[in-house]
Amino acid sequence: MFNLKTITFNQKKTSPIALEFDELIPDKIYGWEKSDFEKYMVPIGNSKFPLSDYFDVEVEGEAESPAQVKMILNGDLGRVKYIGTKMTDGQIIANSSVDLHCGAEMAGGSILVNGDAESYAGREMTGGELEIIGNVKEFCGASYIGDWRGMTGGIITIHGNAGKQLGECLTGGEIHVKGNCDILAGIHMNKGLIQIDGDVTRWPGGQMQNGDIVINGSLSRFLEGFEQEDFVKNPTISGKSFSGNYIKFTGDIARNGKGSLWLAAEKNRHLLY
């Protein structure tokens, strides 16, 4: 993407209480100049403080729309939450691990996290791309507490490991974990694709209704609500081509589900009936 405007946040100091960056997205700041950032009061807990106490912001170029904005966040962002929340376009690069809700409810654009991400990364996404170079905590791509609809569109790529309940209530979109994954991936899943290249502890797809879960590593234990269907060579799953032999299971039959759980045959023969 060609960016006409680069907005760089260079951290000056950290805060023990998380800064909330949900208002600092390309949609809202594409027309801002340096003076606007110097006047901005950032929420921290129940109060607001000058953003300039925590970040020095440099602005280069001009933009006519959010699509023409690239935000670069430098420093220790472990206590900065809501990065990219509800963004619809543009690009954000976070050069550190980040706090809660990174990319939550994003509808477009892209976020790159050069580190780890805390819980609820990409929750309830409807579009866009979220890429996390490190690990992610629980509830990535999930619904929020009390809701039954998680991620509905977009792509999440995790280069490290993922915590529990990845893609909980997934209703669309794609999540790709290149490392290992904890329990209950795809619980209450209704649609979409979850691909896990590493090992999974147990119980993926609990109470799923539809969609596809692909596990290329070893699964230690799965739920009894899945029925073994067949061996499939080089399957096409959710429009993507996979190489090798897979064991296909269907479930969760406890919910009359028609979801598909695909296990790499070579690493999961211990689960054959």
UniProtKB/TrEMBL annotation:
The keyword Nucleotide-binding does not apply. GO terms for biological process: methanogenesis. Keywords: Hydrolase, Transferase. GO terms for molecular function: formylmethanofuran dehydrogenase activity; hydrolase activity; transferase activity; transition metal ion binding. InterPro entries: Formylmethanofuran_DH_suC, Glu_synth_asu_C_sf. SUPFAM superfamilies: Alpha subunit of glutamate synthase, C-terminal domain (SSF69336). This is Formyltransferase/hydrolase complex Fhc subunit C. It comes from bioreactor metagenome.
